[in-house]
Give the backbone structure.
Amino acid sequence: MNNLLLNAGRQTLQIELEEASRLPDRLGDDFIRAAKALLECKGKVIVAGIGKSGHIGKKIAATLASTGTPAFFVHPAEALHGDLGMIESRDVMLFISYSGTAKELDFIVPRLKEKSITLLAMTGKPGSPLGLAAAAVLDIAVEREACPMHLAPTSSTVNTLMMGDALAMAVMQARGFNEEDFARSHPAGALGARLLNKVHHLMRTDDQIPQVRLTTSVMDAMLELSRTGLGLVAVCDDSAKVKGVFTDGDLRRWLVGGGKLEAAVSEAMTQGGVTLEADSRAVDAKDELMKRKIAAAPVVDKDGHLCGAINLQDFYQAGIL
């Protein structure tokens, strides 16, 4: 029994891989026309399909939408009962049907022609009614399904998925769609947290900012260290520009060296110190702290004035790891 299961699984994968390996050589003028139709689309891309093709179509629509091409899935039966009203002349329809003979096409194709809507086909039968009606045909034909009865769509659904990915990735790259664009479509995900958050979104503000003036005593600076627990205090001049930082390490070194608590903190602080810009990307700021092997830093605005403070824990809590 174990060998039977393993052999069946391996044979399925081998057949699907063999069928999929033929796809790259099929990409040509029709693929270019289809990609250009999506790039030039002024409206939305409507993906449609029935059965297993419909399930794959939903994934293709989702991939297009998340990579810069507005798209959604419409079931052909629902389209014939009102949803065709959502489709406008500036839209493009990508219809998926392996046989290319879905009966819904008899009603849908004339409506698309009436509205001058571009029809793209993804089919295993380029000479089918769907293929002949389409402006471009993406050939997903297979010589055999992986199903031993040659009934369940297996190799053909893999080909459909891969062709959809090829189309989406080609269009994405042609648009110049980048990581930050992708993150805007996934603001709640880890990538969104890394690429969309700026330092000012995460930093501590108002009375949570540990700060003292240059003339403040070491004693008072120490109390400010304890009050906020951030591990540092920003030392500013009278115009709120950061002139240095006073850290736990500075305090220890000052006391071990015989320094007095009544002295001005300007004598004990680290001159200059590391500051982060409020408008910089949070992921870059975190990397800067890690590179310099420090846990926290003051945050300044574009004019160099203190406006916040942040530490590594603030980044981790925001999902920036």
Summary: The longest strand covers residues 118-123. The chain has two domains: 2-177, 199-317.
